[in-house]
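Follow-up to my post from last week.
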Amino acid sequence: MNPDLELDCRGMLCPRPIIELARHLGDVPVGGEIVVYADDVAAASDVPAWCRMRAQEYVGVQNADDGVPGYRVRRLS
Amino acid sequence: MTTYLDTASGEPLHPAARAALEQAREHGYADPRRLHGPARNARILLDNAREATAEALGIRADEVTFTPSGTHAVHLGVLGLLLGRARQGNLLLASAVEHASVMHAGQWHQARGGAFETLPVDALGRVRVDDAERATVLAVQTANHEVGTVQPVADLAQHAPVFTDACASAGRLPLPEGWSAAAASAHKWGGPAGVGLLLVRKGARWRNPFPGDDRVDERATGMEDVAGALAAAAALQAVVAEREETNARQAALIDRLRAGVTAIPDTDVVGDPVDRLPHLVTFSFLYVDGEAIVTELDRRGFAVASGSACTASTLEPSHVLTAMGALTHGNLRVSVGRESTEADVDRLLAALPEVVAGIRRDAGL
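User reply:
Got it. Predicted complex:
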């Protein structure tokens, strides 16, 4: 499935990728998906933790062509 | 005047240690192995330190070795048990939330042909293991140094020989049952820095993994810091004697903090709220930069630690928080001391909402 929104957070240090995720959650409809591409290792923990704390769904990770992980989030509310 | 809330990194010297240190510096300078009067004095002081330490911990004096640090004691404990059981196997299993010194010992073991695996933990940070039998040596801390969660060491020790890192808990909690080797660090209970304890149970198979030395204590390397060891022992005795009262008071302060920070929106308070170390708590604020919050709190007179990546020399987030699935950025570890008061905690609780809100506002939220 293609995401509704891709956020390029390459080169950003945490918490910046999480802040971008929070700012853009409203840009996708409920049920829609955002992918956050982040090379900061902290994002691997912090995207799922954000989903738990904000009651959104963490779908999983898929790597971009350049190997940078993309963290998939589905908007639930 | 700074409010010091980082005792888990280093506790101020206990008054009992200060007195012992001054006295022992004067009389404990000689090499305890020599056959003259000053050496005998040093030997007596060292033996006293060993006996007092053993008594405070409820173990035998010949199970106590003084090392130059807690980290070195961990390395000796982990690797020495592995070497002692080399004929049985070479698999070190360690909880994923062990102190970095255990992880470094595991990597050293692995680099020399051994096997090293980590065991997952639950959301409270408690290790989960159902196949501990396959371990040659199991490394499980007595209680976690970042989130405070107490580990089921005695249960696990029924399945494999256990090394327990007691650096965060020694003096505060009794040693758990069942360990084969353990480590502790004096500056975490109010003794001087530069004194660690390696504890090896009578009958445990342990071999020195390093070159060794010719000391009175065969596990020791280099001349002991006699005065430091005596000061550490004096502090440990005092702390153990006071701990029922200290623990109750500190646990109540931490309960107050845990309850108070939940008033700040989007805060992740982690670790077991009940079965934990009495003196520390870890929490993380969403969207907050760890370095920014530690710096701002420092400016306002609070000394606290953080496990966030931006505050670590490695730029890696805390592996403890990562293993627990906790938020790693915006992290603070607050640890109270013997003299911390309710007023200290309340001032921190009063400052935090404004500090957190300010950093979030600067981030554009």
